[in-house]
C-alpha cells in the first residue's frame, strides 16, 4: 500500500516537514512493515515551468516529417527571466523545436528548461536540431514520468488549468509530493486504505485522526432506484456470496471532464494511472476508504441487477477485453441480458464507462472473501478490488462509499445526483468475544492493567462491556480478523508496544538423547558415508510401472497394492513408493549424464505399503476427543511405512588413473554394502541365491534375517539397465532397515578373545555346481564344532579334472581354544568332523 504524504495529512497530524521515512518509522511501531519510498523528485529536477505558446511555425522536413518551431514565454508577461543557466534566454521567451501537433498558439504547456533533468537521467540542454537551437523541451506526460500517453504534449487546459507562465509546473502537478510504501499482511485488510493507515498512525503516535467515513453525509431523502436481487448462495459450499449491495445514480456528467491534478497526482503516487474522471473517482474513493466500487454506464444496463452464481456455459468479456468462461461457483453481477461483472474482481466490457457516458450507476457492495479469492485465482485475474475483498472490507462502508463517489462526480464532472438509492441485504458484523483480563499477561508476560486493556481495545474501535469477571468485546466492523481472544491480545501487545514484551528465553528441558532407533539409524548412515557412499534424497512419488518392477521380486500380472495420489505433481508420478530403488537409480542416471561415472550412492526413506483397509469411512469432527473405536479405525487405515535403505554402485573403485586401472564394482560390492549395514547394527544376514524380476538372473542374492527375507542385492538385469540408460553392470541392494533395527541388540558386549595361538587347516571339496557356497560353508561350520573360530572361502574352480556339473570349493578353517594351545590332532579331528557332515548332507568329496 502506497501512502501519499499530502493525503495522509488530511486525516492525521503528520507534520508538514516530516518525510516518508518518518511515516514508516511510526507505522513500524504498530506492526506494519516498511517497503519503499516513492519520490518523483528522485528522477525529476527543475527548472520545469509553465509556458505559453506565442508562436508556432510548421516546417516540413526532407524526411517527410513536419516539426514546429515555437516561441514560448516562460515568465509572467512583462517580466524578465531570473534564471541564468546556459541556454536560458534572459528575455523569458524560449525558442523550442517540437514534433507534436496537439497544441495551438495561446495554449499553456509544461516546459523543461536547460538544466532540468527528466526520468532515466535525461538532461535538458540547448541543442541544435532541424536548423534551430532548441533551448528546452515542451513535455508530454510520459516524458515527465506521470503517465503513459505519448500521442502529444501535455496541454494544461485539458486538466482544467490556466496557470500563469513561469509557474512551477512540478508544484502545479503535485510532483513535490512523495509516498511511503508499506507491506500489508493478509489479516489486516483495513490497512489497504488511507482511512486505515491514518488510524494506525494515530495509534502509533497517540495523536487524533479524522475518519473520512464520518465526514460523508448520505442523502436521507433518496428514493428507490434500481431493482436489486440477491440470489447468490454457492451451489457447492453453501456460502452466501453477497451480504449487501448498494447502488446510486448520477446523471449529466461530462465524460471529458479532466481529472484534477491533485487527484491524478495522488492516484499516481498510490500506484494507479489516471484514466478518466469516472474511473479516477472510483479508484480514489477505494484508496481513501478501502471500499471497492464500480461505475456502470446506466444506458448500457438492461433492467435491474441480480447478484447470483454463474450459469453453466456463461461467458463474460471483462474490462481487459478478454472473454472468460465462467464457473458455476463464480459470483457474478448480472442484468437482464447476462453477466456484467465478476463480483469483487473485475467488471464487464459491455457496461463500461466510455467517452460518451453521461449517466452512471455507482455500485458498492460487500462480497464474501472466499468467493472473491476463488474467482480471482480461477481466472488468474488479480485486481485492486479483489486484493481488498479477499482480506475483508468494512460491511458498513458500502452506502458511504457510494455517496462519496456521487459527491465527487457532482463536484468534478458536473453531474447531478439523481436521488436514487438501492440498498439490498444487511451488513454482517463481527461477533462479540469474551476476554479474560488475565489472558494478555498469560500470553505475553506483560502485566497489563484492566484499564489499560479496555482503553487499548476502545482505541482500535471495539466496544467493551463488563460480563461478570470477563470483558465482552465487540470488534469494530472493519476488523473481521478479530474472532478469538488471542487476536485481541495481539492487538493489546501491538498497540501498547512490542518493546514492552520481555525477551526472556525459556529454559530448555533436559534432553533425553537419541532413541534407540535414532542411534542405530545414525550409525548406519555415518558408517556408509565413511565407507565412501554419498547420501541422496529423492521424491517418494513413482509411476505404477516403477513400483511394480522394483517393489516385488516376482513378475506377475496381479496388481501390486500401492497408494495412489489424488493430486499428483505429475501424471507419470501418481503413486507413493513401495521401494527406494527407482528414485535412487534416477539420481544415479542424472549424475552419470553429467559426467560422473564412478559412483556409490545410498538413500534411506519410508516406503508405503497399503493394508487391507485404506483410510477411514468417516473423519471425526473438531472440538471433541474421538472414541477408542474411532481412533482404532483411523489407525487401521494408515498404511505400513517401514524404513528402507538402498545403495547403488557403478564404475571403478578406486577410480581409473593412467597406468593404474581401478577394480570394476560388481554384485559382490552390493552384497558387501548390505553386510556392512548388518555389521553396523550387530545383526547377522544370511546371503543365499535369490531371484528378482529387476535383477540379473544369475547374480542376485536374497538377504535373510532369521530365515525371513529382508532384501535383495546384486546386479541389475541388462534389459533394465538399457531401458533406464544406466552404466553396464550397475549393482544395487535394498534392505528393510526397520526390520534390522528391530532385531538389533540394545547392548553389545565384546566377545572374550583367547591369548592362545590359532591353527589353520584347509579343505577343498567337490560338490554339485548348483550347491551355494554359503550353504556348504554353514555345514562345515556346524560340523567343525566349538573350536572353529573362522571360515573363509578362498578358491572356486570348475574345469579340467573336475566332473561336469560339479565345482571345487576351497576353505580355510581357523581353530582356536580359549584355555590351551591346540594340538594338530585336535584341529585335524575337528576338520574331519566338518568334512564328514558335508559329505553326509551334500555328497561332498575331498579333492
Structural class: alpha+beta
Give the fraction of residues assigned to helices.
25-40%
Number of domains: 6
Number of strands: 42
Radius of gyration, taken over Cα atoms and rounded to an integer in Å? 42 Å
Segments where pLDDT lies below 50 for 5+ residues? Answer: none
Percent range for β-strand residues: 25-35%
The outline comes out as elongated
CATH architecture of the largest domain: 2-Layer Sandwich
CATH fold-level topology of the largest domain: BirA Bifunctional Protein, domain 2
Strand order of the largest sheet: 28-31-32-38-37-36-35
* Discrete helix count: 22
Q: Which superfamily, in CATH terms, is the homologous superfamily of the largest domain?
A: Bira Bifunctional Protein, Domain 2
- Classified by CATH, the class of the largest domain is Alpha Beta
Distance between the termini: 92 Å
Instruction: Give the averaged pLDDT, no decimals.
Output: 91
The biggest sheet amounts to: 7 strands, mixed
What does this structure look like?
The strands form 12 sheets. The protein has a 7-stranded mixed sheet, sandwiched between helices. It has a 5-stranded antiparallel sheet with strand order 5-4-3-6-11, with no helix packed on it. With 847 residues, it is α+β, with helices and mostly antiparallel strands. It starts with a strand and ends with a strand. It folds into 6 domains: 2-39 and 178-215, Phenylalanyl-tRNA Synthetase, Chain B, domain 1, CATH 3.30.56; 42-172, Nucleic acid-binding proteins (OB fold (Dihydrolipoamide Acetyltransferase, E2P)), CATH 2.40.50; 223-425, Phenylalanyl-tRNA Synthetase, Chain B, domain 3; 433-500, Phenylalanyl-tRNA Synthetase, Chain B, domain 1; 516-620 and 628-743, Bira Bifunctional Protein, Domain 2 (BirA Bifunctional Protein, domain 2, 2-Layer Sandwich), CATH 3.30.930; 759-846, Ferrodoxin-fold anticodon-binding domain (Alpha-Beta Plaits). A hairpin with a 2-residue loop joins strand 20 (331-335) and strand 21 (338-342). The chain has 22 helices and 42 strands. Helices cover 26% and strands 26% of the residues. One of its GO terms (molecular function) is phenylalanine-tRNA ligase activity. Residues 42-170 form the TRNA-binding domain. Pfam families: B3_4, B5, FDX-ACB, tRNA_synthFbeta.
